[in-house]
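User: Predict structure, ligand nicotinamide-adenine-dinucleotide.
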Amino acid sequence: MEKKRLIEKDPKLKKDDLIVIGGAGGFIGGALARYFTDKGFTNIRGIDKKPLPEWYQRVPGVECLNLDLSNDKNCERACEGAVEVYNLAADMGGMGFIERFRVECLRSILINTHMIEAAYRAGARRYFFSSSACAYNTQLQQDPKVTALKESDAYPAMAERGYGWEKLMSEMFCEEYWAERGLKTAIARFHNVYGPNGTWDGGREKAPAAICRKVVEAIDSGSGKISIWGDGSQTRSFMYIDDCTKGIDTIMHSDELIATPINLGSSELVSINELVSKVERIAGVKLQRDYQLDAPRGVAGRNSDNTFIRKMLKWEPNTTLNAGLKATYEWIKKQFEARKKGRRVVE
Ligand code: NAD
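Assistant: Predicted complex:
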């Protein structure tokens, strides 16, 4: 996009400057609240429409507000006094959710529309939007032997119906708030994020968590079987949560990336069959695979082309899938066992 604006240097972010995180009760928003707390920030406000007991993480010292951010007045309240605003709130889930609930996904546009306006009016210095690889043209993703997606592949636009179009439109808001109004915005296109403290059951979980849970269940029940959506040949890359939070921070504070969509994902491509084999190895089992060919499977293949992020940040998400899956499997196993013993866990 054309950039006519001069970029003024920000004052240094102070440890008590207010950081606002929309969707802080969710997986990535919760991890981000913890990340900034660990970095010594003392004035963090998290907002989510979920009741507080259902938040994945309640980070000590973080102000937690239970508000629906699709409402403009609530966004004003959320952004009062904000120096930086991170919007991680969206109605979303894995393929099972986004293929069935397109209207819900599209309605997330209300959240970004009101949050960015509220951030602007509150005089926030920077605004972050969590976009997705689903914003890319789906016609480029028909072959499991994928060519990795680079940033320019979003146009000509043919995004994932519902969810992907909402992301693309919200990206455009971020680009225009910078171009017309001078709000410094950051846009990261996440590629499948996974790790502890995320959705692992209930229908919104994504492939890594779903497979870890199914392996735990198969061991627990002694069934010896695992059901797999599709024929397992579909390929993806998966980014560990710690790489995601680090990437959000770095992209948000890069003056070269203002209002510029950038991939934030791992480029380690695996098929779903390979993902299952990795989890089996971690768990020390071999299961019989039952392929559900009529289940949602999404595009045939998708990977992140990291040429741009490497060039701009001299870094890319680099936690290996084996290491990340091990931590995720252990966490899900613990949740499963706790739930079995009747303890309350967040799913
Ligand atoms: P999540 O579902 O765990 O978290 C999203 C949170 O937003 C939830 O806690 C939900 O209650 C909250 N929310 C939804 N509607 C709201 C509303 N109206 N008001 C207030 N809160 C609301 O999802 P996540 O994995 O943490 O995803 C965070 C962001 O990253 C989303 O924008 C998502 O689209 C994007 N993203 C995630 C992935 C991934 O693999 N997890 C991939 C691409 C993009």
